[in-house]
Amino acid sequence: MQCLPEELLIATIADLLLGCRTVAVGVSSPIPGSAALLARAQSSQPLRVELLESLHGNSFTRGSVELFDRAAQGRIDAFFLGGGQIDGLGNINLVGAGEYPAGSVRWPGSFGSSYLYFLVPRVILFREEHSRRVLVPRVDFVSAPGVSEPGVFRRGGPYALITSKAAFLFDAENCRFRLSSIHPGHTLEEVLDNTGFEFDYTAAPAETSSPSAATLATIRGSVAGEIAAAYPQFAARVFPRHQ
Amino acid sequence: MTESNVVDSIDELVARIPDGARLALPKDSAGAPMGAVRALIRRGVRDLHLITVPTSGLATDLLVGAGSVASVETSGVSLGEFGGAPRFNAAVKQGTIAVRDATCPAIYAGLQAAEKGIPFIPLRGVIGSDVLAYRDDWKVIDNPFAPHGKDPLLVLPAIEPEFALFHVRRADRFGNVWIGVNGELAIMAHAAAHTLVTAEEIVDDDLMAEEGTAAGTVPAVYVTAVAQARKGAWPLAFLDQYPADDRHLANYVRAARSAEGFDDYLRHCTESADDT
């Protein structure tokens, strides 16, 4: 089925949310937000989505402080984080490249990552750009570590990494990513060339499944309508016919 | 008699904020007081120590670009769909402002400690991050109540802003301000020594008279002064009251790429008093 790259990513991420009861979505996350809404539409059990950036898309009555309190209590099952740099240990950097603080590039800052990475069981790393600039051997600044010393309270961490080229799952026992599938139109060689850290893979990796016609209809229908409230510019670009 | 804290103009409101003040601002999407920020810049305020609750965008970028800021404690400064905050990023790279990088729940927790009048507060997570490594005011202790074994735990000092400044939909003539479900504005108001508020409208009714409105109200006891500011969050979106002025913001992002472009923008945008 012919689909946009964004739609493939939305469907791929939605599959990773199966079994979740509550999925929260932070700022600047239109594709993860759409994925969470798709997962809710497809889930056979009740699935709650909390869109932090949407005026009527969340149930917080004390502001976004409530997201963090709920996460600490174990009430949030999945969340999304990105980063200007991500390394093979699952460390993420949202602060900047080069030496801290006055490095070569400054990014916005760590947001809630330094905390939510520890407390949300299933954290999905999402970054469209798949390059050696982003997927580095070692991040320049650890906004949030991928793994912790024994004895540090931690119920969550990296679960998967989704880029514009491929999907990886994180092997927490060995602290490494494992390539799970490559998106249509991309190759293993290209993924290896553009990834700055080592990861596990098989000689013939699977191709990421394209969304079915029914899934695409849901994305282009109810999901497009709902995500536009939080991300109008994204919705206008990706779902222009819905406007 | 009952004292009223309603003042006549935004300029009168922000005149209370001295140079060098520790000033808490809300995130851009939840009551950023843009009219008041322009008034502060018009006044030529200097050496502010900003605390963004927990993040910021245009409000911080304007103040930093105008040379009004000495330091920023923040979990993130960004213009959202419009990209990075150009003047903030440039100032960090040039070292002209000090940045204290935090994480969202740490800023909330520090303010909540101030609300409770306690010196510090514990928080989960963060251990092993460089956010913690660069914060000499944050410590890790052993949880004194751990049932077995060691349980390292982050503790943060209370954050006590001298001023909180934010914009709301509605205030009443008694100086009560309605925040609805945006409870973090109440945390800011409780934590700060002085709270200054701009409001789209100032109504004659008493917001505290009915439980329906009182539940979402910061009572005047926490509010030092209120001024009316129609479209007080412009050019940002404000709740369901008005959308973002996308054209203005796109122009800003283009202009603020350079210090000169920013200065031109600032002249046009802060020259005259905001329409109140």
Radius of gyration of chain A: 17 Å
Shape of chain A: globular
Count the DSSP helices of chain A: 7
**Helicity range of chain A:** 25-40%
Structural class of chain A: alpha/beta
Detail the poorly predicted runs of chain B: none
Distance between the termini of chain A: 23 Å
The CATH homologous superfamily of the largest domain in chain A corresponds to Glutaconate Coenzyme A-transferase
Order of helices and strands of chain B: HEHEHEHEHEHEEEEHEHEEHH
CATH superfamily of the largest domain in chain B: Glutaconate Coenzyme A-transferase
Distance linking N and C termini of chain B = 28 Å
| Oligomeric form | heterodimer
Number of strands of chain A: 13
CATH class descriptor of the largest domain in chain A: Alpha Beta
**Continuous helix count of chain B:** 10
**In CATH terms, what is the fold-level topology of the largest domain in chain B?**
Glutaconate Coenzyme A-transferase
The CATH architecture designation of the largest domain in chain A is 3-Layer(aba) Sandwich
Structural domain count of chain A: 2
Kindly report the greatest chain-chain contact and the residue count on each side: A-B, 51 and 56 residues
Beta strands of chain B, count: 12
- Overall pLDDT level of chain A: 95
Question: What does it look like?
Answer:
The complex is a heterodimer of chains A (243) and B (276). Chain A is of the alpha/beta class. Chain A folds into two domains: 1-77 and 212-243, no CATH class; 82-206, Glutaconate Coenzyme A-transferase, CATH 3.40.1080.10. Chain A has seven helices and 13 strands. In chain A, the strands form four sheets. Chain A has a six-stranded mixed sheet with strand order 3-8-10-11-12-13. The mean pLDDT of chain A is 95. Chain B has helices at residues 10-14, 34-43, 58-65, 86-94, 104-116, 130-133, 184-191, 211-214, 246-255, 259-270, and strands spanning 22-26, 48-53, 69-74, 98-101, 120-123, 139-142, 152-157, 163-172, 177-178, 194-203, 217-218, 225-228. Chain B is built from ten helices and twelve strands. In chain B, strands 1, 2, 3, 4, 8, 9, 10, 11 and 12 form a nine-stranded mixed sheet that branches. Chain B has a three-stranded antiparallel sheet with strand order 5-7-6, covered by helices on one side. Chain B has two domains: 10-103 and 161-270, Glutaconate Coenzyme A-transferase; 120-157, no CATH class. In chain B, strand 3, helix 4 (86-94) and strand 4 form a beta-alpha-beta unit. Chain B is an alpha/beta fold. The interface between A and B is large, with 51 and 56 residues.
